[in-house]
Amino acid sequence: MMPDVDPKLVMRGDGKPEQGEWAATQLLGLSRPPSAIICYNDMTALGALRASATRGLRVPEDVSIAGFDDLFVASYTSPPLTTIRQPKQEMGRRAMSILLQLLAGEEPESRILLPGELIVRGSTAPPL
Description:
This protein has three helices and four strands; from the N terminus they run H-E-H-E-E-H-E. By secondary structure, it is α+β, with helices and mostly antiparallel strands. Helix 2 links the parallel strand 1 (about 35-40) and strand 2 (about 65). The longest helix is centred in the last third of the chain and has 16 residues, at about 90-105. The radius of gyration is 18 Å and the shape is elongated.
């Protein structure tokens, strides 16, 4: 069973660094800011890293930040970004297979789950 999530801790954006910076600024300005921010892509996480630095916070000592995608820049941020690596080649293979099935008039699988890989780098600390 999933725990209840405080809606004040869920921000929506457009996947760009500017929105990540705005969202992280909102979260870090709360009376009880989170100890970790998980972004739905690495570009958003770049903005969260900037917002943390602007507030004088140290990553990961004061706040942990993680992204999703494992873009090439993730290992070059300061500190290097913890992220989830997607199986992009397998995703492409599956997409092509689905397309070929559709073109052949077949019904492809409606749900496909592919495992991601957690890439732990310097932007996250153990939980408090």
